[in-house]
Design goal:
five-stranded antiparallel β-sheet, elongated, 17 strands, single chain, about 30% helix
């Protein structure tokens, strides 16, 4: 039976068509066989069947896909028996022509009346919106994965797998990316030769993160290599690098420590200049530590850049270069800081590899194993003949 105005329940009812004209599919099922006893027009439209094919013969399960039937019988009906109501269950109605209509199903019953009342809401627009949303999310994920892969590929070109072996000089380097390594930073170091006994060691940090920072880091690294051939003085090289970065037009700037090492008469002469970077730390054999370098401006940041070259004859000493990922590491006691770093250096073994490994391990331990920023450390010392 279909409730209509003619079959009206109560002539005094001011809303006699609420069931028949409801803007959702509405059906009543008998207990215990579950056959349909009442349906409205919207229910007929959703299932694509006339009322004559539904009342007294069809069950709700017979109108669903195979998966929907299994879900109904194994989960939904037991839930109804226990909770007396279910809400917003996503199902597909299977029409006679084989098409499927996604719907949301609400149903209830009561302990006093086992009749089951079912409401269906068509959800095609909702499915289309969800599909579009998932497609957009997947596209964004793919774009982010591609950008990360590109940036990580760029960064691998900026960090040598290991410093080159240099006669009469020991060099140890370490790099640890921030976090899980998925965000690419601007830290880099480079060790390269410009003459038979002449080398450059450069360590820098380009501001910012991501692909743009990695691209600028690549520009700085390779521009430095090109300039080093014609500009042996570190401060002069930094002046030219500063002009090149201004001409590049990027918003990123760079801090760096650039060092030349020239071997004469069994002694390495070190010339060093700073560009907005922490000074190098020079440690003697007795464990005393002092800073080496005169503060300069970052490269590519100000109009009136200034850099100063200092010279030091390297004897039985180590020189350590580091990025701010070391001193600005955050732990329970605040920043790691310069004082804590110098104290650690005083306690280290007097060997470049031991110093580099100890600093990186200690700074990571201070941050409970997760670096808040990239960490780059380079230590070098003359090797006895």
């Amino acid at each position: 039976m279909r409730l209509t105005r003619e079959a009206g329940v109560n002539p005094a009812d001011p809303f006699p068509d609420l069931f028949a004209d409801a803007p959702c599919g509405y059906a009543v099922l008998s207990a215990p066989d579950g056959t349909l006893t009442h349906v409205n027009a919207e229910f007929e439209r959703l299932v694509g069947r006339p009322v004559s094919d539904l009342l007294g013969t069809a069950t709700l399960a017979s109108l669903l896909t195979v998966g929907g039937r299994i879900l109904l019988e194994t989960h939904l009906l037991p839930m109804l028996e226990h909770d007396r109501a279910i809400r917003e269950v996503a199902l597909d109605v299977l029409r006679p022509d084989g098409s499927r209509i996604p719907v949301l199903l609400n149903a209830n019953t009561s302990s006093d009346d086992p009749t089951l009342r079912v409401v269906l809401f068509e959800a095609r627009e909702r499915h289309r919106y969800e599909h579009d949303l998932l497609a957009a999310k997947r596209a964004a994920e793919l774009a982010r994965e591609a950008a990360t892969a590109l940036a990580q590929t760029l960064q691998r070109t900026l960090i040598p797998p290991a410093p080159p072996r240099i006669p009469h000089l020991d060099v140890a380097a370490a790099y640890r990316p921030a976090g899980d390594g998925s965000v690419v930073g601007g830290d880099f170091y480079d060790v390269f030769q410009v003459g038979p006994d002449a080398w450059w060691i450069v360590l820098g940090d380009v501001s910012g993160k991501g692909v743009s920072a990695a691209a600028v880091t690549s520009f700085v690294r390779y521009t430095t290599r090109a300039l080093a051939l014609d500009h042996p003085d570190p401060s002069e090289l930094l002046q030219h690098l500063d002009r090149a970065l201004h001409a590049h037009g990027t918003d990123h700037y760079c801090t760096a420590v650039v060092t030349t090492l020239t071997r004469q008469d069994d002694t390495w002469s070190v010339r060093l200049a700073l560009a907005g970077h922490p000074p190098a730390l020079l440690r003697d054999a007795a464990g005393r530590v002092r800073e080496l370098g005169v503060p300069g401006t970052p490269v590519g940041l100000v109009d009136a850049a200034r850099f100063t070259t200092v010279t030091h004859l390297l004897r039985d000493e180590t020189i350590t270069l580091y990025t701010d990922g070391v001193t600005e590491a955050r732990g329970h006691d605040g920043l790691y800081g310069e004082t804590r770093l110098q104290s650690l250096l005083e306690q280290c073994s007097h060997r470049p590899h031991a110093i580099t490994d100890r600093i990186t391990d200690e700074v990571l331990r201070y941050q409970h194993g997760v670096a808040s920023d990239d960490i780059a450390v380079v230590t070098f010392a003359a090797r006895p003949a």
